[in-house]
Amino acid sequence: MTALTLDGNATAAAIKTELKERVAALAERGVVPGLGTLLVGDDPASRSYVTGKHRDCAEVGVSSISVELPASASQEEIADAVRRLNEDPAVTGFIVQLPLPAGIDENAILELIDPAKDADGLHPTNLGRLVLGVDPSAAVDAPLPCTPAGIIELLRRHDVAIAGRHVTVIGRGITVGRPLGLLLTRKGTDATVTLTHSRTVDLPAEVRRADIVVAAVGQPHLVQADWIKPGAAVLDVGVTRVGTTESGRARLAGDVDPAVAEVAGWLSPNPGGVGPMTRAMLVSNVVEAAERALST
Ligand SMILES: Nc1nc(=O)c2c([nH]1)NC[C@@H]1CN(c3ccc(C(=O)N[C@@H](CCC(=O)O)C(=O)O)cc3)C=[N+]21
């Protein structure tokens, strides 16, 4: 048996087609949503992620505004760039590409983002709304963190049942694991979640009882085939550079051992799984912010 594919490329393409219509409706009312990106330093991986985000925006008719600062930028220079993006009327949502250079207080920078323009859903106000929003229909409308929202959308659009199922999340990071636990346990999603991390005593045992496994730690091929309940859905989020190919390109490995495909019922490829979904949800947050701004 071989796992069915949780196809992030195809699903993200479908979401972008839907977004295109909403962008056209906004255009009729004279609004063009705009994504701002702030990139500090010249890490090639970060640069290529940012380029991908601009490409996605162009596909759906969202404009993009790119701000770059040198790796030597100070805390105050970065803060000023954030304040300018907050004030720029062409920017309906923006992100500060993480990680920021060593020595910069990342949380202090994230706190300066206008919560109404927070395209990542990582501002404390929006994360707080997610904590308070157990019942999402009662919650204040807020942008959701892109990777967790993309994971849930990927499962939903492949009809993988979530309600009442046991989900084991590997990794408690701020962009994936922790907010994913919050999203999965909301009313309407209704999963039971085990959030594991580097001090978890018996990780294979926690994974074995899961109907859905999300690996977001950045440890190449950590998750083994004999950890997987037959038929479970497995989402491979992490990527680690494990060397270079002969042609000089980065050789990347996900968190899931390829042999898992022989046991799992569903598997998200990496690349081509959660990554494109993250980007589609980012565009979705920017479009939603523009829609919200019109209605308030
Ligand atoms: N403020 C902030 N927000 C982020 O969302 C954020 C960030 N900082 N810092 C870095 C991580 C990483 N990240 C990725 C998103 C998509 C792909 C992606 O689409 N990957 C493709 C492959 C891309 C390629 O081939 O270059 C795939 O999985 O198929 C990868 C990585 C967002 N991040």
From TrEMBL:
Keyword NADP: yes
Enzyme nomenclature, EC number: 1.5.1.5, 3.5.4.9
Biological process according to GO: L-histidine biosynthetic process; methionine biosynthetic process; purine nucleotide biosynthetic process; tetrahydrofolate interconversion
Catalysed reaction equations from the record: (6R)-5,10-methenyltetrahydrofolate + H2O = (6R)-10-formyltetrahydrofolate + H(+); (6R)-5,10-methylene-5,6,7,8-tetrahydrofolate + NADP(+) = (6R)-5,10-methenyltetrahydrofolate + NADPH
Tetrahydrofolate dehydrogenase/cyclohydrolase catalytic domain span: 6-120
Alphabetized UniProt keyword annotations: Amino-acid biosynthesis, Histidine biosynthesis, Hydrolase, Methionine biosynthesis, Multifunctional enzyme, NADP, One-carbon metabolism, Oxidoreductase, Purine biosynthesis
Primary role: Catalyzes the oxidation of 5,10-methylenetetrahydrofolate to 5,10-methenyltetrahydrofolate and then the hydrolysis of 5,10-methenyltetrahydrofolate to 10-formyltetrahydrofolate.
Assembly behavior: Homodimer.
Family annotation (PANTHER family): C-1-TETRAHYDROFOLATE SYNTHASE, CYTOPLASMIC, C-1-TETRAHYDROFOLATE SYNTHASE, CYTOPLASMIC-RELATED
Listed HAMAP family: THF_DHG_CYH
Family: Belongs to the tetrahydrofolate dehydrogenase/cyclohydrolase family.
Protein name: Bifunctional protein FolD
Organism: Microbacterium ulmi
Organism ancestry: Bacteria, Bacillati, Actinomycetota, Actinomycetes, Micrococcales
